[in-house]
Structure formats: C-alpha cells, structure tokens
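Can't paste images in this forum, so I'm doing it all in text. The chain is below; anyone willing to post the predicted structure tokens underneath?
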Amino acid sequence: MGMVNTVGLVLHPARDCNSALFELLAWASKRKVTVLALEEEVSRVPGPVEAVTPVDLAARSDLMVSLGGDGTMLRAMRMSYGPRPPVLGVNVGKLGFLAEIDPPEMADALGAIDEHRFTAEPRSAVRAELPGRQTIAFNDVDLARVPGRGSSILVELTVESHPFVRYAADAVIVATPTGSTAYNFSAGGPLVSPMAEGLLVTPVAPHSAFNRALFLSSNEKVLLTVLPGSPEPALEADGNLVGYLNPGGTVEVGTIPDAARVVRLGRTTFYQRAQRKLRLSGSAEADGD
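Text version of the structure:
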C-alpha cells in the first residue's frame, strides 16, 4: 500500500493551475486518493475535491501540494507547521527556489512519493516574539521603515544578552537559510545552503558604520530593540504585516528547527536551482597567460 491516501492542495491566488490539477486529479482518481482543498479555493479545482479549513488540510494530508511559486510554497509550509506533512512544490509560472517539479512531471512525482522514493528535506523557521504575541516565518522577519514616517529606523541587535551593534537602516532582516535567496539576497546578503542551521541578520540601505550581514547560530538568543529617536517601524513576517513597534519596543527572535518538510526527488540541487533562477551561466576565468 502506498503512503499517500490524502493530498492537500494549496493554489496560487491568481495563476492558472489547471494543467497541474488535471494531472493530479487523474492520478488521484486511479488510486482512490482523497483530494482536499481550502474552502475558498475549491471552485478553482476542476474535479472532485473536499473543502476543508487550513488546519484540517494540514492535519489530514499525507502530502501537501503547492501549485504556484515560492510565495505559495511558503503559505503551504506555514499551514503545515505542526502536523508537518511533506510539501511538494510544483512550479506554475516563474521558476522558484522551493519548487521541485513542473506540471508535466506531476504523475511521476506523485508515484515516486507514494512509493517512498523521495527525501523530506527539513526546513527551519524563524520565530518572532512580541509581548503576548508570536509569529513564525520560513523566509524572514524584518523591522522596516514605514514610508512617510521619518527616515532610517534605529535598531539595536543583542546576542546572548550582550548588545552587539546598532543599525541605522531602511530595514533590518532576520532570515532563515531558506530565506537567504529572498529579501536578504536583494539587500546584498549572502546565499546560504538550506541545510545550514542559523539566522542571517542583514541591514537594508544601512547608514551606520557597520553595514555587514551576520550569520548567527540557531542556539543563540537574539533580541531586536527599537531605539529612542527611531520612527515607528513595521514588523513583517514573510512579507506580511504583523504590526508596528514604538521606540523601546523589542522583538525576541529564535529558530524553530525542522518546522516544515519539503519534498526532494533528487532531480536538482539547491545550487542548480540557484543557477537557473539567478542566471549564473558561468564564472569569469583567467585565460592562463
């Protein structure tokens, strides 16, 4: 008996996912596999599907399938947190770092997963704790300047209870290795293997003397403090607004290891996906003269 009896779908909010859905539904019909979809997305599925809440989708699925790009994959990973069913990323549109297959490969990929011919790659999350509130993200959390509310934000980074550096910047990003390819990379931060464990701290458009990214151990206690005189920054998680902090406000940041699991079929590596996404066709070489 295969491992997949129930598949949960997460769809890109705008892109046409039908080519992938037809492949998935045909495979599920032959094997009498139940297909679940979110209540607000059921009408977009061209076949038999059961409408469920996000909590039930993750709890009942043996496999979650994300149809879209990296944003859709991140949404599926956040839903999977807790039960942690493996998440298969299917590229519908632009190539992402997290997608494993394209729609024509759907049936073969589902068959391989059903026969246990895959690996579940663990991905860490970043946890941001405010007084009385907690949020998680799989790419990053950041404190960011709000347009029209002053100039650079002023943020102090404390590591293991020791104040380390003060940033004056447009934003301060705390990213997971998974998120190193996202906001962190656009801000000039380094790429980090998703198999690494730790947190990247990267300032955006810094105006302070120290303007470098830091890579911290996943075991280190990290605190961000909004300094007096700073405009009120926004706190974002995976690009979604969480709230605002006043000067003196703090955010405690930590790592949640193995918070989600991503399906890998061994067809491409992180570095091959990065080459394709970033168009790294080669590197400059000395001519030997």
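The two ends are 62 Å apart (CA to CA). The chain is about 20% helix and 35% strand.
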